[in-house]
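COURSE: Structural Biology Practicum
ASSIGNMENT: Worksheet 4, Part C
STUDENT ID: 0417
INSTRUCTIONS: Below are two proteins. For each, the amino acid sequence is given first, followed by its structure token string. Answer the questions at the end about the second protein only.

PROTEIN I
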Amino acid sequence: MKKKLFWFTMMALLLLLLAACGGDDQTGSDAEEGPDDDNETSEETFKIGILAPEVTHGWVGAVAYHAEARLEELGDQVEYQIQTSGNAEQMTSQLDDLMTWGAEAIVAFPQWEGMDVPIQNAIDNGVTVVNFDIVIDAEGVYRVTGDNEDMGIQGANYIVDKIGDTGNVVVLEVPSSGSVSELRTKGFEETMAEIAPDMNIMTYATEFTREAGLADFSDILTSVDQIDAVFSLDDETSVGVLQAIDEAGRTDIQVVTGGGGMQEYFEMMPENEDIWIQSALYSPAMVRDAVDTAVDLLNGEEVEQEIIIPTTIVDRENYEEFLDTDSPY
């Protein structure tokens, strides 16, 4: 009888022990995988649209590349769409499409006139708009850009430093680029008037392509006998300018400026000892800052209305610091 009572007692204790252990396992599973903890670790996903021009220029292509690369790096924080267009009408339609899709923020890179009203409409409808590069006349728009006016100021100072305060300087403006050309030319002309008022300035229109630089500057070379320096606003244009100079066999030109951050152009700098080849760095990677600004605003952070990235001058003396084999431009 005592043996039966002993075994009965031991079996009861064993069952109680197993029940206790099983209860502890279930509690641990609930703690690690319960819905409350999932809610605590989840992050909101934002819808961000990118509006960019069609790729007709290496710099523009690099902008789209860096924008998408940054959005990919943000991972689950964002859901995005990238739209490219060939004119203001098409970009306006794409802007409407992004709003219908539910975009909470749009990073816009318009290169044409006529986008002010559509962008203002998007802002009025509650969309956060971060404009990249070009000036847009819209209340409430944020902007990330390089310092276009300072690029002109630096170009004037660079040319005077190399050729002195007198000579013949050709300015290659690009009216189709809107505020970019206006501000760069303004900075150049105002600075030149101050530091070298006797400089002879000759202004011609061109485009931001090497083909236009070659064709337009070839024509200029046939009509102007003496040119001491060229104030070009863009690296690709300047590649064409240098080709025109080489093909014409001209030896009078001492300085050719540029702008952007083109690797091919950088590599040309040490190859020509007779011409100071200069670029005012205007990196397409700046668009990453525009994307980050959009995310910061959607997260409720305080952001400056306008973020201007300072100018850096690149020439044969420091070009190696800016060589990047991974750059798409």
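PROTEIN II
(use this one for the questions)
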Amino acid sequence: MPVRIVLADDHRMVREGLRDLLERRTDLQVVGEAADGETAARLARELRPDIVILDVSMPRLNGIEATRRIVAECPTVKVLALSMHSDRRFVIEMLKAGASGYLLKDGAFDELVHAIESVMARAAFLSPAITDMVVKEYVAGLAGGERSAFAVLTPREREVLQLVAEGLPTKAVAARLGLSIKTVETYRQQIMDKLDLHSVAELTKYAIREGLTSL
């Protein structure tokens, strides 16, 4: 049986290129594609693939939150992060969210195949380019001690922050999350108070820096 894969990346050309490369192999099969984190989590529930290969920076629900949701709802589904970001915030938060591997987009296709094989064999995989960095960060204790967005904010606050940073007005955020406008405004004020930030521009910069969204 081929390894069943869902591809999640907000760039269509990236998904099409990966699908073409993966399906040249008889032992790999792409069963679904997603352009945002919410769709990736839904396809994981519906299709129950072996692996979800996803980007860290995606609209609606970023890759870190999507990974957390997939791992919680579909424990048999493995998540493999494929990203352009080598920043320790992205790597460490993806691993803490439950990803089984993390590799960079500038790597060779053979590295992706090796990552898939490792994950399917229940072994973690990290790109050689970031392995030393991750080890050093954990040894230094920074991974657990730093107050990142994932330590300071609740999951709902992070959802609100991402949508606000992506430019959605309060009414649209409320509709997307099934909340009242007043509740969204309360969440936004709580976020600002916790982070000591005072404008949407500052919130947006923070969300991008913490990997909740991208430009």
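ANSWER KEY EXCERPT:
Q1: The two ends are 39 Å apart (CA to CA).
Q2: The mean pLDDT is 88.
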